[in-house]
Amino acid sequence: MTTARAAWLDETIRTLARHTWVGGIWLVGSLGRGEADAYSDVDLVVAVDHTAPTTVFTDPVAGLGISGHILYRRPKPRNAPKDGAYLAVGIDLAGLPVLVDVFVWPAATATVSAGATVVYERDVLPRSTLGFIPLMDQHRSDDRRGSDPDAPGTVLMLVQLAGKHLVRGNQPKLAGICDQLAIPTDSCEVTALRTVLDQRIDTVTYMDSTEGVRAVHRLLDLIERHLAGTLGPAIENSPDQH
């Protein structure tokens, strides 16, 4: 997973840097801080100028030309920077889902948060002493819509996040995700997460979710093996953004 994620990220950065309207690219979250593990998400911020195509804002992944087989999408407009865009997607890497959060930020206000890693900048970007979330709170979109809690993309993403926090032993974050999934905290384990996948996502109605369900099940297989100790020690707790 780690090797595939790194290769995908290198390709993505090269692709984005070719666009003349991309002014900068940086990573936030655990990858930005250099604290990532195999289960870490990719939190990618892209600064674009006024010449960027409209599709960059209506569909950031397609508009930016980000490669990879998408297993699910989870839009949440209120996560976007003002006049920008946001989309979370699960991308199939090495047969497993890797969560990628894409933030499109207009270059006129784009600012690199403290703890971020800049991987490309056409011109020097302004820096802030604030962390990503506090900085975003100062530049939050006027669109206050959240995500659809019953959409397959939301369920797939939340189950994936719950699995990550479970294997890390991060009980506070696990409890928060399980609450969103309506799973009692004391029974939020791999078996319960599998049940949510199978009962809340109808792959007959949502045929395009079939691959995503299978991939998240494979991820849960891996997490079970980690928890059982057959893949070595469990992952250390890591303070990701989610």
TrEMBL record:
Organism listed in the record: Paractinoplanes hotanensis
Domain Polymerase nucleotidyl transferase intervals: 17-53
Descriptive protein name: Nucleotidyltransferase domain-containing protein
A Pfam family hit: NTP_transf_2
